[in-house]
Amino acid sequence: MIIKILFFVLIFCIGIVSIRTMLGPTIWDRLITFNLISIKVILLIMCFSILYEAPEYLDIALTYALLAFISTILISRFLEWRDRL
């Protein structure tokens, strides 16, 4: 029961952060909110794995976490160096 409540709370948080992504005044704010959305999606995948007792979804969550981390690093490096190109 608590997992289902947590599932809906995370979806609500993703909605709020998505609004903040659209309203972010700088690209750095949007990058941070992208990272927050990625974290919330990882938590959703983990809750889904616990709710349906499917441990194979934890591998998907780990892969998504690695991809989100690498993409955040690459985008921040690009934004840092784009004025110099």
From TrEMBL:
A single GO molecular function term of this UniProt record: sodium:proton antiporter activity
Location(s) in or outside the cell: Cell membrane
Transmembrane segments: 6-23, 32-52, 58-79
Keyword NADP included in the entry's annotation: no
InterPro entries referenced in this protein's UniProt entry, alphabetically: MrpF/PhaF-like
Keywords, sorted A to Z: Cell membrane, Membrane, Transmembrane, Transmembrane helix, Transport
Gene Ontology CC annotations of this record: plasma membrane
Topology of this chain in the membrane: Multi-pass membrane protein
UniProt keyword annotation of Methyltransferase present: no
Pfam families: MrpF_PhaF
Family indicated by similarity: Belongs to the CPA3 antiporters (TC 2.A.63) subunit F family.
Protein name: Multicomponent Na+:H+ antiporter subunit F
